Amino acid sequence: MLVPVKWLNEYIDLSDIELAEYCDRMIMSGSNIEEAYKVMGGINGIVVGKAVKVEKHPDADKLHICQIDVGQDEPVQIVTGASNVHEGSIIPVVLHNGVLPDGRKIKKGKLRGVESNGMLCSPSELGVEDKVIPPAFREGIWILEDIGAKCGDEFAKAYEVEQDVVDFEITPNRPDCLCMLGMAREASAVFERPLKYPEIKIENEVDDVKNYIDVEIKRPDLCSRYVARVVKDIKIAPSPWWMQKRLMAGGVRPINNIVDITNYVMLEYGTPLHAFNIKTLEGGKIIVDVAKDGQKFITLDEAERKLDSECLLINDAVKGVALAGVMGGLNSEITDNTETILIEAACFDPDGTRKTSKKLGLRTEASSRFEKGVDANLCRTAADRVCQLIEMLGAGTVVKGAVDVYPEESKPIVTKVRTKRVNDILGINLSTGDMKEIFEKLEMKVAVDGDVMTVTPPTIRFDLLEEIDYVEEVARIYGYDNHPVTLPAGSDIAAKTADREIEDLIKEKLMGMGLNEIQTYSFVSPKGVDKILIDQNSYKRDFVTLINPLGEDTSVMRTTLIPNMLDVLERNYTRNIVKVEAFELGRIFLNAFKTEEGLPTEKKNICIGMYGGNCDFYQLKGVVNTLLNELGIKELTYTAEKNEKTFHPGRCAAVSKDDKVIGTFGEISSEVIDQYNLPARVYVAELNFEIIYDLCDMEILYKPIPKFPSIERDIALVVRDEVEAGKIAAMIKRVGGSLLEKVELFDVYKGKQVKDGFKSMAFSLRYRDANKTLTDEEIEKPHQEILKSLKEDFDASLREE
User: Fold this and answer.
1) What pLDDT does residue 509 have?
2) 3-state helix, strand and coil shares in percent for the chain, rounded to the nearest 5
3) Largest Cα–Cα distance of the chain, in whole Å?
């Protein structure tokens, strides 16, 4: 919100307050400031001039020779390329050796053989932002209004163009501050000075508005109030300089007197207004209703827009004439020939306005204000203020009365505020009277009953809903810099939660194994699961969809971390990174599994990804196995997984413990690799953090070093290809009994010595007795039992050398 300080002084006298002090005290009251600057600052040496003679250049069709009166004995001759200069024009002029705001120095010279002793200035050359330059002067010289300044007077002083502007950052919950009166109300409370509202009085009203227009609201849920006033005998002309100057400082481009007045009142009161050419309204009616599905409508920007039944439309008896709260229609715009206008001051539903604006891709100053909320109780005041200004500027004759349709009056939310509660929260010691005074400074009504205040806020304060909101009001108006500095009471010691400890340990272990941590967005594209070939009926396709996404690529919440990991690997590979080993510990969001409150389940997963170097399936398995063992999860079972289309069917496994599946890992399938710009071999694992957390056992028990030696036996078994090593190891442990201390697979071989359809798997078996030294004879019996069971259960035979 741009606040020109001179304009602000119209409502509250701060003329004796320095800009720095004003900014500091407003910040300490909770009003955040983006910046404070001077509009058209540094304009020196520019004078007011008047064109007394204008003629064409004899040798150039596009140049004109101007004789400019700048208060000297003789007019100064200046050659210009501007076509909008005429005799009598009042113009800002920079003379020989003068300097423009951007530092350019102007020298006299000749243009096509004709002497030129200066330059006529356009608004942009004087530092005016392009977005606020009046349309008539965007391509030419700035023709000034005659305000009685003398030729030769310094332009900046005569036209008072240099002024301070403060740019406030207004949070969405404070739409009351999106106007000059709102910021004046804040300053009044902070500086304890009286607030002066505009005195609205219309001197001459004629006829009766009911003879011109009738209003019907068919959707009061989308339009809570509609005020219509009529002004006839309209005279379209430029606005006076004082209004143009304020609008430009407030960031709004002057157009003409009628448009400028509606914009002026919007900046003043915060209520967007719109003016219709009443001659174009058929049937003398305004009907507020939703559009029909597929209905087409042309807005003021000459764009045809396709509407639906969620778009609120302002209609006459036959057609639509404006998009409610967003933009007017081309078929009802005001032109130079307009004689009578209808002024609309309405209150439209914030959610409805936001939907229409977003759906049509059309965001305007009006829509941005309606989206945050507009006070319905200000509609009539704003409409009357427009009529007053039109009468004051001689731009038309006001028709008596207003059509005001207000089905249900907006009422404030009354709240009880306890003095002790406020003091306890803020750590201060204000009396009930002190707090009552603060609330009354903010135009609230307060009834006191002992220690309890019953507070009624203005209806524009949508943010005051509960007692805690009033605590904030006391805190900020009391002044954040006035609050005592104290340490929090209590002896609580900050500590990490158990799951956070495990998270940090997982990250530490993975980084210790050489992996880099990555972090990706939870908002993803729904196409990600297509790229990794997730089944059509998988729960991973049941997304939590964002209502207001930035785009399709961030339109849903992720259900798996694998697409994010592959995106990161692809990004690194395309940048010639030859080897990457990375992991992410992040959240997934499962809409298919609801909580007791009916909300999507939010879980944490661990994703590991790698390519390049000598990495292979077994390296990834080693990372997974080491990580789980470090977390106290041992005696894992690895099972071949052939139903996951994301992975290669022969190089994928599920890891589990006690029938709880911890996750899946393996080599990414070639079909998925084709979806990404990746090397042929990429390995990924996705593990369930919550299961890991449940299984992890970080308790370390002392176990003495064995006193007696072990005996190790290696066996190389030939089995069919489909036999899994995990099942063989489990069977060996079961049959081996108490003497068998450890079983480990150390080799898998397929080659000339092994016939087709079979493979060789070599296991190392360690035997030990804690009470004595074993002999070969003592381990022979369990060892033979193992070989017998392997033959019976898996048709396994010892491999011959």
Assistant:
1) 95
2) 30, 30, 40
3) 130
Spatial separation of the C-alpha atoms in residues 452 and 433, rounded to whole Å: 11
3 state DSSP class of 71: coil
Tokens representing residue 723 in the block? 């036999």
Burial 94-124 (b: 16+ CB within 10 A, else e): bbeebebbeeeebeeeebeebebbbbbbbbe
Amino acid present at 275: A
In a domain, 486, yes or no: no
We report the CATH number of the domain holding residue 304 as 3.50.40.10
Same domain, 330 and 239: yes
User: Which helix (H) or strand (E) covers residue 50, if one does?
Assistant: strand 46-57
* Residue 115 CB contacts under 8 Å (≥ 6 apart), including other chains: 77, 79, 108, 109
Q: Give residue for tokens 């008539």.
A: 136
Does this model's pTM top 0.90? Answer: no
Which domain range does residue 757 map to? 711-799
| H or E stretch at 441 | helix 432-441
Specify whether 594 is located in the same domain as 517: yes
pLDDT tens figures, 522-568: 999 999 999 999 999 999 999 999 988 888 899 999 999 999 999 99
Model confidence over 321-345: pLDDT tens digits? 999 999 999 999 999 899 999 999 9
Is the domain of 526 the same as that of 571? yes
C-alpha distance from residue 227 to each of 275, 333, 402 (Å): 12, 19, 7
Give the whole-angstrom CA distance, residue 435 versus residue 467: 13
Alpha helix (H) residue ranges in 197-278? 241-249, 257-269
pLDDT of residue 801: 60
DSSP string, 411-425: ----EEEEHHHHHHH
Cα–Cα distance, 516 to 510 (Å, whole number): 8
What pLDDT, on a 0 to 100 scale, did the predictor assign at position 524? 94
Q: How many CA atoms lie within 13 A of 582 on its CB side?
A: 23
Total domains present in the chain:
6
The residues that bridge with 712 in the sheet, in sequence order, are 766
Distance of CA 799 to the CA centre of its chain: 66
The string of pLDDT tens digits covering residues 10-57 is 999 999 999 999 999 999 998 999 999 888 877 777 899 999 999 999
Residue 721 burial (C-beta neighbours within 10 Å; 0-12, 13-18, 19+): exposed
Confidence of residue 491 (pLDDT cuts 50, 70, 90): low
The two three-digit tokens of residue 239, written as one number: 């606005």
pLDDT per position as a tens digit, 359-408: 999 999 999 999 999 999 999 999 999 999 999 999 999 999 999 999 99
By DSSP bridging, strand 600-611 and strand 223-232 are unpaired
Mean pLDDT of 195-212: 94
Q: What digits encode the pLDDT tens for the residues 114-145?
A: 899 999 999 988 888 888 988 878 778 999 99
Domain at 15, CATH number: 3.30.56.10
What average pLDDT does range 655-677 have in this prediction? 92
The residue out of 666, 695, 724 marking a domain boundary is 695
Q: How far, in Å, CA of 529 to CA of 51, rounded?
A: 71
Q: Which residues pair with 767 in a beta bridge?
A: 711, 740
How far is C-alpha 30 from the geometric centre of its chain's CA atoms?
21
Identify the CA nearest to 265 among candidates 384, 173, 184: 384
